Amino acid sequence: MTERIQKFISDKARLLTAAGVERATGEIETILCHLLDCERLDIYLHGWEILTNDVKQRLDKIIERRLTREPLQYILGESWFYGRRFRVSPAVMVPTPETELLCETAIRYIQQHSIEHARVLDVGIGSGVISVTMALELPECRVVALDISEEAIEMARTNATELGAVDKIEFRQSDFFAAVKPNERYDLILSNPPYIANWEYGALPPEVKADPTISLLSGDDGLDAVRVILRDAPQFLAPSGRILFEIGYDQGDKVVKMTETDERFRSIVVMKDYNDWDRVVMLSCD
Ligand SMILES: C[S@@+](CC[C@H](N)C(=O)[O-])C[C@H]1O[C@@H](n2cnc3c(N)ncnc32)[C@H](O)[C@@H]1O
Fold first, then answer.
1. Which of 46-50, 131-135, 246-250 shows the lowest mean pLDDT across its residues?
2. In which region does residue 114 sit, left (phi positive, over 0), alpha (psi from -120 to 50) or beta (all else)?
3. Is 172 left (phi over 0), alpha (psi -120 to 50) or beta?
4. Does ligand 1 have an atom closer than 6 angstroms to the CB of 126?
5. Strand locations in 16-83, DSSP E?
6. Ligand 1 atom 12: the closest Cα is on which residue?
7. What SS3 state is found at 196?
8. Nearest residue CA, atom 26 of ligand 1?
9. Which of 164, 186, 180 is nearest to 118 (CA)?
10. Which of 96, 233, 249, 267 is surrounded by the most beta carbons within 10 Å?
11. pLDDT digit string (tens) for 234-251?
């Protein structure tokens, strides 16, 4: 039984691999889990019994679309983040595992410093993964969630509602910090901003190019959004607060340089991701 399902999966995976899809076996397993509403282990334990003709036909349809390099998350309409299922559509960026590192670091900071009723600002919310994760992992916190895209706000609101976080999040359509009032202060200012340089766009894999360009591109060096964060975020930071944002794999030194001449910053740490690339910047102003 197990051999039969293994061969079925590897035959399908071969098709995707030939089209340039990485980790094709994992994707076939993900599709089957989605169609069968089960865990990976269930596929190998019971797969052949539950793999009906209807499921096989639906799998083939998904594979057909995936062969064009349409992102699997858009085809399935969902993406997993911090152990939770989020809805996604081509109107929002597909969340990436690297952003979990930003959330983990932010949560640890609040817990280690025993900050109660943490106030969190999320700049550029997309599907809402950062805002919703903060709202659910930090019981007493309040989140203000900003995005310039109305469609992103709608998607994030849907996710927050379905995951039970909507009462803790205030959504505002905003060009960066424009909708933040001068007297507001936050313990955490978080962002996964666009950080790809315009000239890099052509070489991106088709799956990444399927993300809205407003989620990806940030000027000639990819750092335009970071410049706005460095310029505007400090004025909204509470005492002992932290600014955390995601950066590109080689942007750490550049961001450190950008902060050196700004006397408002007291410390900067660049954290590496699981591939040992620059990924998260943490800044303090006191
Ligand atoms: C890289 S995506 C991150 C989405 C989400 N936070 C995540 O981690 O998956 C960047 C987000 O910033 C938003 N954005 C781009 N320019 C913006 C601006 N000027 N003001 C506010 N949000 C902006 C985009 O609409 C997009 O949702």
1. 46-50
2. left
3. beta
4. yes
5. 78-81
6. 124
7. strand
8. 215
9. 186
10. 233
11. 999 999 999 999 999 999
Domain ranges of the chain: 2-68, 90-284
- Ligand 1 atom closest to the CA of 96, numbered from 1: 9
Task: Give distance in angstroms: CA of 126 to centre of ligand 1.
Answer: 5
Q: pTM value?
A: 0.96
For ligand 1, say whether the CB of 208 is within 6 Å of any of its atoms. Answer: no
Q: Which residue has the tokens 């639906």?
A: 58
Which of 99, 172, 192, 244 most suits a substitution to test ligand 1, by most atoms within 8 Å of the C-beta?
A: 192
**Ligand 1 and 176: CB distance under 6 A:** yes
Question: What pLDDT score does 1 carry?
Answer: 54
Kindly state if the Cβ of 130 falls inside 6 Å of ligand 1.
yes
- Give the pLDDT of residue 45: 83
